[in-house]
From TrEMBL:
<dbReference type="InterPro" id="IPR035965">
    <property type="entry name" value="PAS-like_dom_sf"/>
</dbReference>
<protein>
    <recommendedName>
        <fullName>PAS domain S-box-containing protein</fullName>
    </recommendedName>
</protein>
Length: 240
């Protein structure tokens, strides 16, 4: 009886120390905009804190990961394959796995996260069946790099074409509206800086396209053609 009570006390103290250590680690992670959680591979279940559970609308003990998370719409469509790959890599015996995914919060906010798993080894140096997962929010860095690449491409196009173009514009294929990013050579009619794409195409065709090429021009600039040529991004939006 005394031995059993002593074991219980030791187990309680061990659990308390583990909790304090994990909480300290979590607090440090929060300061670096990271989320630390554990992943039970056998049960395919993750254990997250209360705040994270509320943010993404999941349970603190969330089963059926990764597939259930995809089904709940938490993972952005364009990174579903990468999200599943990272999890399957650790599920299939990998000691580490990482990649970049996009997650959607309850309020619809899209965040870019670097996800990394590392297997916890037992006292004998063998995989314990539990991995530590870390999400690091890199949304700001990702957006800055994306914007830099965008303007680098824009500058390349401008330099390559010199002044032999009316303008370079960004097109929202959902709203069917455009926004001029850079004006090209002078022309005989004003080019609105933003507006309805179809109206722009009709105006350019009326002023610049010879009658025998009108049909070809309409086919080339049609929204359906562009939607068919460009890769799908995050379900709906494209930029060109």
């Amino acid at each position: 009886m005394i031995v059993e009570q002593k074991l219980r006390e030791e187990l309680y103290q061990t659990n308390q120390k583990l909790y304090v250590a994990m909480r300290a680690f979590q607090m440090a992670a929060e300061e670096s905009r990271s989320l630390v959680f554990t992943y039970d591979l056998k049960r395919q279940t993750i254990f997250v804190d209360e705040q994270t559970a509320r943010t993404f609308g999941v349970a603190e003990v969330q089963p059926d990961v990764p597939y259930g998370m995809v089904g709940r719409g938490i993972v952005s469509e364009d990174t579903v394959d990468e999200y599943i790959r990272i999890h399957e890599e650790i599920l299939n015996g990998g000691l580490q796995a990482e990649g970049i995914v996009k997650l959607i919060t309850v309020d619809g906010t899209l965040s870019v996260q670097k996800l990394k798993f590392e297997m916890i080894m037992d006292a004998e140096g063998k995989p314990s069946g539990t991995a530590v997962g870390i999400y690091r929010d890199i949304t700001g860095q990702y957006q800055d790099e994306k914007e830099l690449r965008r303007y680098q491409r824009l500058d390349y196009v401008i330099q390559a074409m010199k002044n032999d173009y009316l303008g370079i514009f960004e097109l929202d294929l959902v709203k069917e509206r455009y926004c001029v990013l850079h004006c090209g050579r002078e022309h005989s009619f004003p080019l609105p800086m933003e507006g309805d794409y179809k109206e722009l195409v009709d105006k350019v065709a009326e002023k610049l396209i010879a009658p025998e090429f009108l049909e070809l021009s309409r086919q080339f600039t049609s929204l359906d053609r562009m939607r068919g040529c460009l890769p799908r991004k995050n379900g709906l939006n494209w930029n060109i």
